[in-house]
Batch of 2 targets.
Target 1
Amino acid sequence: MATKTFSVAKLPGFTTTAIIVFIALYLPILTLVAYSFNASQSVAVWGGFSWDWYVKAWNNDAVKDATMRSLLIAVCAAVISTAAATMAALGTTRRKAFKGQTFIYVMINQPLMVPEIVTAVSLLILFGMVKQATGIQGIGYVIFAHSAFCIPFAYLPIRARLEGMDLTLETAAADLYATPWQTFRHVTLPILLPGVIAGAMLAFVISLDDVVITEFTKSGGQDTLPTYMLGQMRRQLTPEINAISSMLLALTIVLLTAFFLLTRKND
Amino acid sequence: MSAAEKAQAAQSTRNGWLLSTPALVILTLFAVGPLMIVVVYSFLAPGQYGNVEWQFSLDGWRGILWTKDIFDDTYGIADANISIFWRSIKLSVLTTVLTFAVGFPTAWFIATRPQKSRALWLFLITIPFWTNLLIRTYAINEVIRNEGLMNTVLMKLGAISEPIRLIYTDTAVFIGMAYVYLPLMVLPLFAAIDRFDMRLLEAGYDLYASRMQVLRRVILPIVKPGIIAGSILVFVPSLGAYVTPRVLGGGKQMMIGNFIDLQFGQGRNWPLGAALSLTLLVIVTAALLIYVKYANRDVSNGH
C-alpha cells in the first residue's frame, strides 16, 4: 500500500521537542569543550585553535595538587563505601524479611533524601567541634564525609546484582560440602563481582563530582578539583577552566562507558 | 515453625544486622548523627564571631521569618528572607514544570525508538546526568553570559544590537537548573513509559479518541508514577540548590541553599543557619513522603 502508515506511538510535536532537547543538552557542553581550545586569553573572543590551556592546566601546581587530592579522596571513599555497601547488601537481600530491615534501608538511602547543603553544614559543625577538640586537620574528614554519601550509590547496583542471583548455585555448593566461607569465596563473590565493581565506579564518580559537601568539610589548602574550579569561577575566567572541565568530562565518559559495558553483561 | 527453624531465622536476622553494621556506623557518624547537632544548634544563641553561645534561644527559629529592629527591639517581618524563600519555591516549581514539559516528549521519543538505538539515546541522557554539576552549570554559563554563544550568534545575525543581559538574574538560575536537572526528569519518565503497553493506544484510537484525548485519558494516568517520581527528583534538589544559583545568580539572586551558607559565613548566625537547614529538610521530607505514598499505591495496583 502506498498510504502513509499510521503509527500509534507518534504524538504531534514530540519528536521535534526531543531533538531540540538533545541539542540543548549537548550544545553547552560542546561549547565548553570548544572554548578549551581557544588561543585567546579571554573566554569571550575566539582566537584560533591551540592546546595551550591544556599545557597550562597540566603545569599548574594548584590544579595538579587538587587533582591528586580529588583522586585520593575518591579512591578511599569508593573503597570504604563499597566495602560497607557490599556487606550491607549481603545482609539485606536473600534472607527472609526481618524486623528493622526498613530502618536499614532508610539509613542507607538517607544521603539521597537530605539536601546536600544540609548535610554540608551539619558536618561543618561536627568537624569544627572535633577539629577544635583534637587539633587534627587532615584530609580524613573529607574522606569520611564522602564515604558516607557514596554508600547508597555503591549499594544499589550490588543489591540489584544480588537480587537477580540464582540461589540454587549456593545450595549446590553447600550440597557439595563447601563451607559457608568457601561458598562465598568461590561461588557468591565471583558472581557478585561485576555489581561490586559497578558500585565502586559509581561511588568514585559521585565522590569526584562533589562540590558542596567538600566545600564545607575541607580545611584550608585542601581544595579538590571541583572546589578549586568553584573558587576560580569567582575570579577572572580563562579557558584553563574549560580545559580542566573537558579533561574531567572525558574521564567521566570513559568511566560511564565502562560501567554500562559491565552492567549490560548481566542481562 | 519448629525450634530449629526459629533458631535459623534468628541467626539469619542476626547476620543481616551484623553485615549492615559497618554501613550503619559510617552513616550514623557522618550523615544522620550530625543532623542531631544541627537541631541542638538551632536552639542556641549566635556567637559574636560565628559558631554559637551555649545558651538556649529561639532567635534562630524566629529569625527565619522575623527580624529584630536594631533600635527598639521590636520584631518585624523579614522581607529579604521572604523574597529568598519565594524565589526558591518559584524557581523550583518553574524548573519542575519546564523539565516535565520538555522531558515528557523526550522520554516518549526514547521509549518509542527501536530496541537497538534506544540504549544509545538513553546513554545520551545519562552522560549529562553523571557529568559534574559544576561543569554543566559552567557550560550553561558559556552559552548565556553576555559575551557567550547565544549573544554572539544573535548579534552576528543582527537579531539584537545589545547583548541580552541574562547572567546573574533569576532567569539565568532558572535556565541553569532546568538544564542541570533535566535528566532527573527524563529517566523516571522513560522507565514509566517503557513499561507502557502500546496496544492501549490502538484501543484508544479504535474507539475514535483523538491524539490529545489519548494522551490525556490513556497515557498520562498510566505513567503518573513516573511523572511524580521525576517531579520529586527535580523539585527536591532544585529547592536545596547551592552551586547553580551561586554560579549563575552571582551571589545576589540567592536561594535557600546560599542563604544557609551565608549564615555560616559572613552572616555569622549559625543558629539561624541551623534552623533554615531544618526547615529545608522538613519541606523536602514532606515532598518525599508524598512520593512514597504514591509510589506504593502504584506497586499495589501494578503487580
Note: Chain A has eleven helices and no strands.
Target 2
Amino acid sequence: MQPRGVSTALDSSAQDTAAAETVGLVSQGGERDAESAEWIRTLGSTGLVREQALARLHELLLRVARNELHGRGGQHPITGPELDDLAHQAAADALLAITGKLSGFRGESRFTTWAYKFVIFEVSTKLGRHFWRKPTVALEAEDWDRLPDRFGMDPADHTQGRALVDAVHRAVDEHLTERQRQVFIAIVLQGVPLDALVIQLSSNRNAIYKTLFDARGKLRAALAANGYLSMAADTAPVASADEDGGRRS
Amino acid sequence: MTDWPGLERFLATDPNDVGCEQALEILHVYVEAVLDGSPSSAADRYPGVAAHLAACGPCDDDFRGLLRAAEATS
C-alpha cells in the first residue's frame, strides 16, 4: 500500500488543522504549506498512517543521502556498497532525529527542506568519521614546507616565500594558544577536513571553526605588525557561545 | 606585502560571520530564501549567514547539498 499523497491534506480534519497551527503553517496558506501540514499530521499520527509516512520520508532521505555522497565524491574515496551503506545509515539516523524533533518544526520552510537538513548533516558527520578509517595524515607531523602549496603559491616562488613561511610559523608558535595551534596545524598544514577534526577532538563544528577563526585573526594581526600583510580586514570575533569540547548540534 | 592572495583570503575574517551554529540553525530558511529569490537577495536578508558560508567550507558544502535537495523537490 502506498503512502497517502499530499493531496489528502486538502481535506484535513480539525485535528490536522490544529496540528498545523501548532507549527505555524496555516497562516501561510497555499499548497506548499498543505504539504508540510500533511507531513506533520501523518508523522504525528499512529499506526499505519504513521508507518507509511515514515517509509515515505525515509525513501526521500535515502535519495538525498545518496545524491549528497555522490556529489561530494571528490572529498572522499567511498564508492559502491560502502557508499550505499553510509547513505542508509545517514537516512536512518536522520529519520530518528527528525521524529524526535518534530515539535521543533516551526513552518519557516517547507517540511522537506527542514527534514533534508538533518540528513545533510548526517552525511557530513559520517564522512568526518569515515576519514579516520584510513587516515592519510599523522596529526603529530608538521611539514611547514607544505604551506605554500596549501595556499596555491606557484612552486617557482617558494624560495621567495621562505621568509613568509618562517613568519607564519613564528606567529603560530608565538601568538596562538595550544588549542589554536593544534587546529591550525591539522587543518592548514595537514589538510584534515574540519568535520574529521571534530571527531578526532571530540568537539563540534562551531567550536573548531571558532578556534580557527580566532587563530586567523591573531595570525593576521601578527603578520601585519611585521609588514607582511595589510590590516584592512576587521577581525571582530565570530558569534559563538560554544566551548570547544561539546558535540556538534 | 605578501604575494599569497590565498593566505590573505584565509586570514581575513568577516565581523558579520555568525559562525556554524547560527548559520546551520536557519540553513533551511536561507536555502528557501535563495530558491524564492536569488543568492544575493538571501545574502541581503541574512548577511551573517552569507558571510559565514563564504568562509566555512563544511557549512558551504551543507548549504549546497541542501539547496540541491530542495531544488529537486520544488
Note: Chain A has two domains: 6-131, 144-225.
